[in-house]
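User: quick one, fold this
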Amino acid sequence: MNIHKLNTLKKLEIILEGAHQAFATDILDRAGVTGYTIVNNLSGKGSHGFHEGHLMFNEDDVLIMILVAVPEDLVDPILEGLEPFFSEHSGVVFVSEIQVTRMVKFRS
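Assistant:
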């Protein structure tokens, strides 16, 4: 039986309009995040109604999700950087606890 060592991190799922991708990734980079994944063309329904993905001519208007796994001590600085943005723009951040292998991938 293989026993894998699991490490606890926090996962942030940042959903916002594609036009603001550079703003969000800049906050992550300045916080010292070692990597993230960006998922484009999200569809969904929220307080602003239904949002359709896969717009053909304008990728700035589609929703994106930025997924990032970070140590707990980075969560507050990231959320503090995003808070003023979300008081002016639509979007949301989901925070959950996760378990990861290969902890070396999440250290700077």
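User: anything notable?
Assistant: The two ends are 31 Å apart (CA to CA).
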